[in-house]
Structures are given as C-alpha cells and as structure tokens.
C-alpha cells in the first residue's frame, strides 16, 4: 500500500508527459478507473482501515482525488488548446492558387439570344409557335403574296427538294398555318431555322435563324407596330435605343418598312459597324397585306395586323460583336465558352 | 441604281445639300446606300426595291423629290417638229403576233445618221453612272433609259429583212446570236423580235448581233415597246442573261411611256448623230389600257396608320406623285370624319399600286413614318411558351450540369458522311413508319458537300469534336438539339433529336487532382441522369448491334420501355476516318419519342427514421454474368426489408480464377416500423447467398 504522498508524487510525475488524448485517458484510468484505479482502490480499501484512522485518511484521500480530478481537467483543457493550436498552425493554403474548376456546360449564343428575346415577347403577350423546315412553294411564297415570277423571289434564292417542296426561306409559312387554324386575335412569334441558297462567307450562311412576329386583330395600326418594336428594342438593347422606320417593300406587307436602330456601338455617332451612318438595319416589317388574310380565309376588310421578321444570328452578331457568321456552326469550344 | 446628282438637278431645282437629299430619299423608301463624290458631282447609290421600277431613272427619283419638296418637276418636252397629221413615209411594217406578251410596240425610223463617238457631255454622263460609251446611237438609247427608265433598242434598219418587225414566240430550235456574241438556243416560250425571216432580238432582254448598229449603219429603227414582265423574267433566267432592259421590263415598264421615250431618243439622235426622222410614228397598241383606279377611304386610312393625316395633305401629295384623287359623294373634311372617300386614278408608271393599302402607303410614306406617333397595342396578359419548353429547359439544365456545350451544326450534309452515323431506329421507325425512309436530297444544292438533309446529328457533332481536337482542345463535350429529316416521294418527316459526343477527361485538368478519362460508365451516367431528370419511369439498356459503335461498348436505350436512342463508344473505323486517337463516346435520341413519355409525378415519400443496416456480399461469378441478373435474383426474393441494392466493387485479376470475376454488392436493409434483429439480418443474408448460388452460380469470397 503506497502512501498518499507516493500516489500524489507518481501522479505528478506522470502528468508531466501527456502528449495526446489516449495518454490522458490512460492517466485517468490509472488513478481513477472504477475497477483498477489506484485512488479508487484506496477508496474501496477505506472500510478495512482501523476505525480511528478512517476519517483522517478518508479526508486526505478525498482531497487527493479532488486535486487529481482538477489537474486532469486542466490537462484536458491544455491538451484541447494545444490540439486546436496545432490544427491552426498546420494548415496554411496559398490563397492565390486557383480553386477547383467546375466544368458546367454552356448554351449556344444563338439560344441565349433567343431565350432573352422570348422572355420579352412572352411578357408582351406573344405566344411562341413553330413549324416545319421543309415547306411547300404554296406556303413559302404563294400564300404570302409572292407568286411565281415575283422579282422579290430573286432576293431569296431557294434550296429546293423536289418541287413543290423546298427548305423554307423564312418562317412566314407558320403565319399562314396559324391563320388557317385560328381566328383573330393572333399574337405570335415564330422562331426557327431558315435556308437560302447563299454560299458560306463571313456575312452569309445558307442556314440561319429567324424570328417573325404576327399580330392580327381589330384596328391594328402602323402606330401599334412602331410602339411594339420600339418597346422590344429598348428592352433588348438599351432603354435609350432609338428606332427608325423607313418605308420599304416586302410583298407580304403594305405599307412595308425597314427598321434601323441607333448604332449600339457608337450610340449613333458613326463607326465601322454602322458604316458611319449612326444606324444599323435590323429588321423588315409592315402591315399585313390583305392578300394574306384572303389566303387564310378571313372575312375581307375585317381585320388588320402587322408582321415583322429579323435574323437571330444578326442580332447575336450585333449583341456580342461577332465578326464571322461561320463561328456559329464551327462549335469551337474557345468560342462557345465565352457566352453565358 | 446609280444617280448623278447634277443630272438629277436637270429635272428639279434642288438647293438642299446632297446629304440632306440622300437622307430624305432614304426616309421615303429609296435607301441611299452611299454618296460618292465624282468631280464636282456626287453619285448616289440608291437601293430601289423591286416594286418601284418607276424609280430606276433620274426622272423617277426626281419625281419623288418633287412631290416631297413641292418643287416642280421639269422633265424635257420633246418636239420633233412634226404635226400629228404627217403622213407616214416609213417603209416599215410592225406586227404583234403575241399580244399577251407584248402589249405595245412603238418605233421611229431615222435616216442618214452618222455613227461615231458621242459628244463629251453624253459620254461624261454615262461614265459618271458607270456605263461604258459605245457609239452615239447606242449611247442615246442608254441615256434615255437612265433619264426616264424606259428601255429602247436601235436596229440597223437595213439589216431587217423586208423592213419588217414581227413580235412573236421563238420557233422550235430557233437560234439567235445576241449582241454579246453568244449563240443562244431559244425555246417556244421565249418572245423574240423577228424580221421577215428570223429572230433579230430577244424581246426586252438583248438585241441580236446581226442587226446591231455598226459604223456603217445609216438607217435606224428605234424600238420602244412594252413586254410582259413574267415572260421577260423567264427568258432572262433561262438564258442566264440579265441586262438593264430585262431588269426593268421584269419589274414592269410604263405602257404609256413608249412614245415619249422613242421621241426623246429620236430628238437626241438628231442632235448627236444627225439624220432625219421618217415622218409618222409607228405605234402598235392593240388594246389600249384604260387608267386604273382604286378607292381610298378616310376610315381605312385612319385605322391602318393609327393617326389622322389631313385631307389636304392626302390630296396634294397624291397629285404631286402623279395620282389624281377625286372626292367621293360623302363630303370629307373634319365634319365628315370617318366617312370621307376618294376615287384615286393611278399613273401608268406606278405598276406597284393597285389597292387601297398601296395608296395608304403612298400617303404614309410621304407624311413620314417618323411622324406617326408610336403606341403600344391595347392588349394585356402574357403569351405562352412553345409546347415542351419546360421539359427542354430541364434537359438543357441537366446537360449543362454534366459539362456539355451546346453546338449548332449544319442541316445540309454529304449523304455518305451522314450515313456513316445513321442508326436505323432513328430514321423513321420510331415515328411508326412502315417502310424505311431515305435521306432527303436537294434539287439544287450549292455543292456535293451539302446536297442532302441530315438524317442524324452525329455526323456534324463528331466533325465539330474533331475540329476541337485539332485545335488544341483535349476534353470535348458537345450536344445539339435539332431536326433530322427523312422521306421519299413528297412525304417528309422531321424529327427533333438530341445528340451527344464526349471525349477526354471527365473533369478539366486541375493542379490539385487527377482526372480520369471519359469512359463508358461516365457517359452512361449522363444518359441515366437525363432519364432521371426528365422523370421517365425506367431507364434501361439493351444490346446494340449498331455498326458505327464498338460492339462491346454500346447499348440501345429504353425509357419507360420505349426504345428512344442509343449510346456507345465510336467504332475504331470511324475514329480513323476522323483521325482521332482517343475514345469518343456518342449518343443520339429521338426527342419526340422521349417527350411522348409522361413524366412520373413528384410525390413525397417519408424519410426513414429507423436505423438502416448495410451488408456487403462479395461473390465470384463467371464472366458474362451481368450485374442486372444478380439484381434480378435478389429482387426475386421479394424481401420488403431490402431497400437498396448497389454495386461497390468489380475486380478481375490474380485473386480470382481465370474466366471469373468478383463482384461486391451492398444491400441496405430496414424494417418498415422497428429495428431489425440480428437473427432477421442473418436469415436474410443467408437467403441472398443461397439465391445467388442457385441462380447465377455465385460463390461467396
């Protein structure tokens, strides 16, 4: 049986070397474990002491136990602090090294431009409809007042499959399909691929993307057409975009107009993109020609409407400052990666 | 159309600067693309739309400006000094044999001309607008064309057999050597000018070589006719011959301008080439056309423009443009607003104007589109997105998350290339076609490279992938959503497809990690994720025998038991064609088949709060035993406590015998409403070991 002093001395000696949690547990167990701890054993041994020694020894033993417990708590605390310090000291990153590079994909710039346009048109009350890319001469030309031999057909050199089938040269056939199936009011936009017999170069492509709009209702006027397109362009480009309407000719509208916007690169001062004119030609539009209403089987002289058509590729080129239309179908990742 | 500014000012006294006039022309619908200084003059490049042949001349442009500025038009008045009563001494006979294609033929005969170079003023004018001077007579016909827009032709009168002019269709097999020296083979749809025996000119397109005015010519027949636009256009296109004359005739010439044009030319020829005009105008005009009219209603004008334009403006502007507006019975003016109407006579040169809307355009364009106040139409509410928009956005989201970049490839392809990536399922069968459909050929392709419509997206996508590999990219993942086409005999099918291609690292190379290559399981995972994201009921894979895929790394894909597409590693043959040395994974889906599958609705399931037990089982099985056979055997036990089955390891190597492989499967066990006992777990484990032993001869490791 060791003296309490010896126990205390042994504890103090051992308590100088507690490097980690396991050593601390071992130390605690050595002295305080219920079954084998030296102090616990002394406690158990207490009843066997002579009755007169018991109070004194018991008191001292309790004091010793309390000291050991306090010391152990101190050690635990110190150990915890040391571990925290070590953890803080051990991990220093170079915050300038790059982080993990996520590899999310990207949407094509033409889709991004269309999605942006679509949100504006839908918010303005237009519904989006689509139609086939293979069409007939009737829907692509005749029904929109471009009969055979019409000189305006020259401007749209057509890729034929086997006449009367062809690749649509504009999304206008969908205007006729829609009018054949629905009575006014009609408010639609029609996006899609269109084809022309133009060889590829920096500004031409045999395949490009168009969006046309059509409104038919009672008392729709040129003033409504102007307001609608001005609102769209101010939303799509900048609120201070100016819009200019010039008379022009498209067989499917009367009156017809060409729309220019103030150059978004030089704010109308004149630059390379607008060829110093301050204006960029952006779409064709007009009041729906009565012949189209006739073709659609509408009551004559009952409705009026307006329509427009613009190239999504062209708008994307202007919006992003792209200089070669062929980039859209080359799918070079270095190109695609730039848009989001 | 090139317009000389100084020439223009012969007909209208303008003192505005050329820039201002150009801007105004543009706002009137005659877009001036460029103003180029030419000595003291300016040349305007005017983009005349196809409906306005009347503006393909200096007087035509001057008329628009005259109407706009209210400055009078001073077109030259011709005086040949001949009274109407002069007897014809012209020994020429003119006969129109096809009155539909030629409605009028006017001519003058001029004797004793002296062919030679034109005087400087004439040569200068032609050169300024880009025309090459030829000789005084030809130059005058060109000058008159540029002055007033009416095409003329000068024949050597003495080369016209029997001095006859017959306007007729070409005979079968008839030939004509045109002015440009080319021998043209004609057909019976073409209109020619002939003499007694043979064709001497292609009507409205080009004169003949043999009857051309040459140095020795002394007597002329000047032709000023009107030909039917469609016929001129067809002939010009059939022969690939576009001329200043055909350009105007096919747009529509002024039937009433023939006489003034020929007289103006005769007058100028006398001035620059001498000679005398044979007495009497030759003018065959079998069915003179009465002036056309169209109504114009105040109500319609207001409704279409959306703004009130005063009566005085309407009438004055139409009159200045050569129209004549007569007020109808209901009085116009503010008192009768809404009920006024005009009867408008249309000038013969305005072939583009026929209906009320055309007149409204004339009024609105001269009023100024910019003066019409914009307004937003009076409707409200949002429009609708196209059918399938929400699902497409889910799909795009999923593909973007999986690292795919969206591509757009060209719909027109070389048929051989396209067919190398064509999967039978996708060319029609999926759409229920009973006969195999063919690739659709173009009748007039730009080249062989793009002579057909694509039947698959992969041909274009693998090309784009190869392009990227050739330009220094190693990790490429692309997708495309687009139409593919098939069909035959006038019946065509368009289907929306989704194509995917991937190669290189799964994740971009990064300094702090190693990245493994895109492999079958990575790519299959993308396909499975698409199925999950679109909430289709089951995503399953079956054996594929597609000839452009690696036979051991390919599968057909089934969503909710519908065959919707395929995936696989490209066959080494195809990689060689593309000169690619790394594995490329591809997939293509019929999006319309996928969109027809109803998505499984989202319905909340309780989160299990009770403890779950995981048990791993390692087996050795024979090569060729498929993972889904093992899953099926375990599921066959019908133990509701088995919540999940997954594979955690597949091992081949020294520790297992030849012809076998080891598979470790993890089961998640859970009782629906209490904790499982050790005995229950033990008994289930024994059942799993037993059923795998019986059904797939699996031996526990």
Describe the 3D structure:
The complex is a heterodimer of chains A (340) and B (701). Chain A is of the alpha+beta class. Chain A contains 12 helices and 9 strands. In chain A, 40% of the residues lie in helices and 19% in strands. In chain A, strand 6 and strand 7 form a beta hairpin. The longest helix of chain A has 37 residues. With 701 residues, chain B is an alpha+beta fold. In chain B, strand 29 and strand 30 form a beta hairpin. In chain B, helix 4 crosses helix 5 and helix 10 packs across helix 11. Chain B has 19 helices and 31 strands. The interface between A and B is large, with 89 and 93 residues.
Instruction: Name the helicity range of chain A.
Output: 25-40%
Largest sheet of chain B: 7 strands, mixed
Helix content of chain B: 25-40%
Q: Which range does the strand content of chain B fall in? A: 25-35%
Low-confidence regions of chain A = none
Structural class of chain A: alpha+beta
| Mean pLDDT across every amino acid position of chain A | 91
Number of continuous helical runs of chain A: 12
The number of helical elements of chain B comes to 19
Work out the oligomeric state of the chains in this entry: heterodimer
């Amino acid at each position: 049986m060791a003296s309490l002093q010896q126990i205390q001395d042994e504890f103090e000696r051992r308590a100088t070397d507690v490097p980690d949690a396991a050593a601390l547990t071992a130390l605690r167990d050595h002295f305080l474990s219920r079954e084998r701890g030296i102090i616990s054993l002394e406690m158990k041994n207490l009843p066997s002491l002579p009755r007169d020694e018991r109070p004194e020894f018991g008191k001292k033993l309790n004091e010793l136990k309390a000291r050991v417990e306090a010391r152990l708590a101190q050690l635990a605390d110190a150990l915890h602090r040391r571990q925290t310090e070590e953890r803080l000291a051990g991990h220093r990153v170079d915050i300038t090294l790059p982080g993990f590079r996520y590899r999310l994909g990207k949407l094509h710039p033409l889709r991004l431009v269309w999605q942006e346009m679509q949100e504006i048109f839908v918010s303005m009350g237009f519904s989006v409809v689509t139609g086939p890319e293979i069409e007939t001469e009737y829907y692509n030309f005749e029904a929109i007042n471009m009969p055979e031999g019409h000189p305006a057909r020259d401007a749209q050199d057509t890729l034929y499959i086997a006449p009367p089938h062809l690749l649509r040269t504009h999304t206008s056939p969908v205007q006729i399909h829609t009018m054949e199936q629905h009575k006014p009011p009609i408010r639609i936009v029609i996006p899609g691929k269109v084809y022309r017999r133009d060889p590829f170069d920096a500004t031409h492509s045999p395949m490009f993307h168009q969006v046309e709009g059509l409104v038919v209702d009672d008392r729709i006027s040129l003033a409504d057409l102007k307001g609608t397109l001005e609102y769209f362009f101010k939303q799509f480009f900048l609120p201070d975009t100016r819009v200019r309407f010039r008379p022009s000719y498209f067989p499917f509208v009367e009156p017809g107009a060409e729309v220019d916007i103030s150059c978004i690169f030089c704010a109308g001062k004149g630059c390379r993109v607008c060829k110093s004119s301050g204006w960029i030609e952006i779409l064709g539009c007009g009041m729906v020609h009565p012949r189209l209403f006739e073709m659609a089987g509408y009551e004559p002289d009952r409705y009026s409407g307006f329509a427009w058509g613009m190239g999504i590729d062209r708008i994307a080129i202007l919006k992003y400052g792209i200089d070669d239309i062929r980039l859209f179908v080359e799918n070079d990742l270095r190109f695609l990666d730039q848009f989001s | 159309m090139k317009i000389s500014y100084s020439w223009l000012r012969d007909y209208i006294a303008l003192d505005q600067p050329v820039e201002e006039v150009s801007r105004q022309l543009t706002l009137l619908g005659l877009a001036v693309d460029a103003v180029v200084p030419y000595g003291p003059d300016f040349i305007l490049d005017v983009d005349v739309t196809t409906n306005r042949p009347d503006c393909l001349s200096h007087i035509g442009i001057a008329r628009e400006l005259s109407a706009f500025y209210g400055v009078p038009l001073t077109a030259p008045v011709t005086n040949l000094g001949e009274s109407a009563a002069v007897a014809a001494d012209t020994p020429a006979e003119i006969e129109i044999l096809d009155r539909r294609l030629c409605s009028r033929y006017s001519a003058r005969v001029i004797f004793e001309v002296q062919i030679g170079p034109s005087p400087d003023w004439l040569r200068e004018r032609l050169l300024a607008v880009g025309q090459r001077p030829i000789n005084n007579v030809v130059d005058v016909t060109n000058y008159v064309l540029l002055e007033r827009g009416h095409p003329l032709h000068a024949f050597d009168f003495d080369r016209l057999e029997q001095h006859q002019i017959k306007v007729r269709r070409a005979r079968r097999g008839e030939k004509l050597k045109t002015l440009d020296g080319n021998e043209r083979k004609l057909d019976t749809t073409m209109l020619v000018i002939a003499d007694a025996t043979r064709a001497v000119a292609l009507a409205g397109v080009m004169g003949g070589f043999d009857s051309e005015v040459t140095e020795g010519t002394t007597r002329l027949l000047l032709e000023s006719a009107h030909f039917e636009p469609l016929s001129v256009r067809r002939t010009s296109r059939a022969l690939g011959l576009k001329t200043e004359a055909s350009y105007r005739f096919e747009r529509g010439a002024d039937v009433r301008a023939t006489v003034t044009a020929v007289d103006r030319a005769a007058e100028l020829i006398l001035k620059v080439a001498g000679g005398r005009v044979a007495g009497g105008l030759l003018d065959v005009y079998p069915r003179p056309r009465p002036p056309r009219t169209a109504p114009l209603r105040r109500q319609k004008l207001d409704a279409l423009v959306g703004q009130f334009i005063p009566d005085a403006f309407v009438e004055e502007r139409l009159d200045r443009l050569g129209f004549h507006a007569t007020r109808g019975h209901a009085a116009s003016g503010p008192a009768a607003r809404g009920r006024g109407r005009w009867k408008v006579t249309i000038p013969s040169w305005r072939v583009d104007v026929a209906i009320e809307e055309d007149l409204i355009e004339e009024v609105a364009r001269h009023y100024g589109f910019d003066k019409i106040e914009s307004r937003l139409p009076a409707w409200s509410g949002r429009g609708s997105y196209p059918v399938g928009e929400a699902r497409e956005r889910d799909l795009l989201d999923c593909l973007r998350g999986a690292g795919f970049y969206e591509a757009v490839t060209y719909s027109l392809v070389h048929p051989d290339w396209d067919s190398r990536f064509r999967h039978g399922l996708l060319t029609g069968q999926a759409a229920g076609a009973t006969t195999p459909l063919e690739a659709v050929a173009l009748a007039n392709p730009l080249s062989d490279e793009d002579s057909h419509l694509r039947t698959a997206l992969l041909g274009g996508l693998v090309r784009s992938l190869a392009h990227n590999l050739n330009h220094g990219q190693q990790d490429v993942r692309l997708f495309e959503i687009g139409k593919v086409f098939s069909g035959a005999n006038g019946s065509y099918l368009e289907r929306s497809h989704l194509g995917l291609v991937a190669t290189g690292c799964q994740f971009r190379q990064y300094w702090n990690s190693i990245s493994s290559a895109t492999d079958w399981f990575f790519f299959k995972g993308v396909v499975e994720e698409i199925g999950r994201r679109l909430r289709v009921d089951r995503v399953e894979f079956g054996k594929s025998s597609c000839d452009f895929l690696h036979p051991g790394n390919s599968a057909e894909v089934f969503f909710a038991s519908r065959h919707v597409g395929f995936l696989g590693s490209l066959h080494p043959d195809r990689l060689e064609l593309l000169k690619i040395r790394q594995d490329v994974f591809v997939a293509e889906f019929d999006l319309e088949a996928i969109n027809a599958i109803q998505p499984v609705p989202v319905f909340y399931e309780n989160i299990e709060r009770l403890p779950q037990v995981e048990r791993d089982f390692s087996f050795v099985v024979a090569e060729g035993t498929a993972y889904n056979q093992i899953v099926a055997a375990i599921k066959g036990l019908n133990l509701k406590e088995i919540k999940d089955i997954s594979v955690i390891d597949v091992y081949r190597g020294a520790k297992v015998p030849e012809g076998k492989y080891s598979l470790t499967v993890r089961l998640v066990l859970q009782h629906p409403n209490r904790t499982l006992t050790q005995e229950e777990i033990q008994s289930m484990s024994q059942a799993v070991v037993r059923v795998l032993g019986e059904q797939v001869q699996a031996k526990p490791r």
